[in-house]
Amino acid sequence: xxxxxxxxxxxxxxxxxxxxxxxxxxxxxxxxxxxxxxxxxxxxxxxxxxxxxxxxxxxxxxxxxxxxxxxxxxxxxxxxxxxxxxxxxxxxxxxxxxxxxxxxxxxxxxxxxxxxxxxxxxxxxxxxxxxxxxxxxxxxxxxxxxx
Length: 147
Known about the structure:
By secondary structure, the chain is an alpha+beta fold. Helix content is 66%, strand content 19%.
């Protein structure tokens, strides 16, 4: 009978020690999981902002024959359209669109937390499709005369 009581006491002691160990381990595991989720959301927003800036610059540069105010408006509309649907965790962002005769530059910055800040700048060259095709034809003619 004495051994039976002792074995019950020993088994109860082992169960209590595992509970105490889990009370130390579980908060650490939860903190790591929450941190990984938050970092994945930050990386998602980085990809969305980078892609949006590139698309906005490209769309504005394709309006080559339009005025710079129309190009700027097209880039700003594209930014608003993309980021209003896809940005996660924050809706505040700063944008800057610069248009000159040769290229369109789009900068977008976002701050998700005091230490998670990201800024991206994408540029796209404005091409005149007629002039580009003429240069390609001229290049082909030059290559044919060389041969």
